[in-house]
Amino acid sequence: MRVALLTLFPDVVRQTLSMGVVGRALERGKIDVATFNPRDYTNDNYRTVDDRPFGGGPGMVMLIEPLTRALDAARKLLPDASVVLMSPQGRRFDQAMAINFSQRAQIIFVCGRYEGIDQRFVDAKVDEQVSLGDFVTSGGELPALAMIDAATRLIPGVLHTDQSAIEDSFMDGLLDCPHYTRPPGHSLGDVPSVLLSGNHAEIARWRRQQALGVTWRQRPDLLDCMTLNKPDQQLLDAYIAAHQEKNGVQ
Ligand code: SAH
């Protein structure tokens, strides 16, 4: 996955991407990131990238020209990239989109600032608009970084074991099961004994049941979109019965 970002804050983007799993992926050449600052593609002494909105109103709007020239430079590096605009008006990002991004060879992310960018640039140059969620951030950098992170950890060989990405929340429509580590006994509680049993089939069954149960409790809307097979339905029914007994529900 080779990505370019059009951003007024390339240092923040680079520094954030240098950490942890994504940083290692960069070092090992699993991903490649370039930044293009529209400010470097201005022609005036003030290096102006924004101006007041026609029609009045608050805030500033990003100018077409510096963005277009920055995009042209990015295109030279990534000629086959689709241009993805960060926007609260876009399609909401989810794990399916992260998988899709992780399988693309080239992507150019456009990070807006201020009130947004001149609509003519959006209409002429942008292929897709993607939103991190139904809220407004002050710029496209954090949403783009979140999306790049989510996509990078899905690239084969990026995580220590590819299995850990497969077992993450949302990968099979369910939330992840709970995790425990040492010590087995603690004043906050004991680790479920099945996890200490060494019985791998039982552990797998317990984890599946917990994933189903946690999803039922925390995100029942996810289960509404799924058809459970019989073994899963039985695991969930048993989880629900135990949960209701514990909580005194008839
Ligand atoms: N006036 C715009 C918001 C501008 S916020 C509107 O209401 O639609 C400034 C920039 O932050 C946007 O151009 C966009 O690039 C980014 N941004 C804000 N919220 C976002 C979100 N939920 N997802 C992705 N990008 C977002």
Task: Describe the fold and architecture.
This protein is α/β, with parallel strands linked by helices and about 250 residues long. It has two domains: about 1-150, SPOUT methyltransferase, trefoil knot domain (Alpha/beta knot), CATH 3.40.1280.10; about 185-245, Orthogonal Bundle (Trp Operon Repressor, Chain A), CATH 1.10.1270.20. It is about 40% helix and about 15% strand. The protein is built from ten helices and nine strands. It has helices spanning about 10-15, 20-25, 65-75, 95-100, 120-125, 140-150, 160-165, 200-220, 220-225, 230-245; strands at about 1-5, 30-35, 50, 60, 80-90, 105-110, 130, 185, 190. The strands form three sheets. A five-stranded parallel beta sheet has the order 2-1-6-5-7. Strands 3-4 form a two-stranded antiparallel sheet. The chain has a two-stranded antiparallel ribbon with strand order 8-9. Helix 1 runs parallel beside helix 6 (about 140-150) and helix 4 (about 95-100) crosses helix 6. The radius of gyration is 23 Å and the shape is elongated. It starts with a strand and ends with a helix. The model has no long low-confidence stretch (mean pLDDT about 95). It binds S-adenosyl-L-homocysteine. S-adenosyl-L-homocysteine (SAH) binds near residues 113 and 137. S-adenosyl-L-homocysteine binds near residues 132, 137, 140 and 143.
Mean pLDDT: 97
Overall CATH architecture of the largest domain: 3-Layer(aba) Sandwich
Oligomer: single chain
Rg from Cα: 23 Å
CATH superfamily label of the largest domain: SPOUT methyltransferase, trefoil knot domain
The secondary-structure class comes to alpha/beta
Number of strands: 9
